[in-house]
Amino acid sequence: MEAPVLLLWVNGLMMLGFAGARQQTNLCNESLMLEKLPACGKSFEEMMKKVDSEKWCNLTEFIMYYDNFTQCTEREANNASCFWPNPLAEGFITGIHKQFFSNCTSEKVHWEDPPDEILITLILIPVTLTCAMITLVVWCSKRSDILV
Questions:
Q1: 83: CB partners within 8 A, 6+ apart
Q2: What pTM did the predictor assign?
């Protein structure tokens, strides 16, 4: 009878985090997070002033600034005992994206067929080569005297 009680006790300790797993007991302080996130945005805005606005759509021009911004938002969310990303932080980040990158739409490539002369050539070359290879294989298989 002692074994089941001992097992339940050990299981209870493990569920409480006694086995080394740390449970997050703090609740997310959303108001604190929303109070601190604008400082990250302000810092990012100051750094983006160093980049010519014509180059805002070129990520290589400001990747370090964006990385700092991302780390700042993650740090502030964690300091407020919130997970990151979370809907509030994502909303803030989306606002920053709208502020700086709203004109950075990806240009869709309009595909069109090549001219008929090129298209016919691209189709006929593999068809002709396939027919030639089939003919060669059939001709060689009928001439078994050269294979020996």
A1: 28, 77
A2: 0.55
